[in-house]
């Protein structure tokens, strides 16, 4: 079942645990200077929520097993922090969350991810997203995200089919 995650702080630790579990896949893959443990601190997660990131979750009989955030930014919406627990991968949970948010958004969707996270890029491409050219990527990252220069250098942006 897909549902909106509680925004009252009651699920923050569970969301953080899912993100940090799934983000272990980045260890040794993304630039070493960008990987920290925990990957997402509770304070950073709460800051993201305060900045307008709304999390949606996939829940099964074991509870919340996947999360994906969406953030309205002017004329677009950003998919943020898309993670599925390691032991739940390969079951279509990420695709279900992504399709749900694609259907629910009236705005074109943009996704930023690490350039070296080939599995993430492949996932978004399989779901109809297109990789943006480097010059467009830099403009979009500077316009819609608040991230360090090093992350801009080492990231890519994908857009949904409505962008084209």
From TrEMBL:
Gene3D superfamilies per the UniProt record, alphabetical: 3.40.630.30
Ranges for domain N-acetyltransferase: 13-150
Any one Pfam family match given in the protein's UniProt record, by short name: Acetyltransf_7
Domain of life of the source: Bacteria
InterPro entries cross-referenced by the UniProt entry: Acyl_CoA_acyltransferase (IPR016181), GNAT_dom (IPR000182)
CDD domains for this protein: NAT_SF (cd04301)
Keywords carried by this UniProt record: Transferase
GO function terms (MF aspect): acyltransferase activity, transferring groups other than amino-acyl groups
Designated name of the protein: N-acetyltransferase
Species this chain originates from: Paenibacillus anaericanus
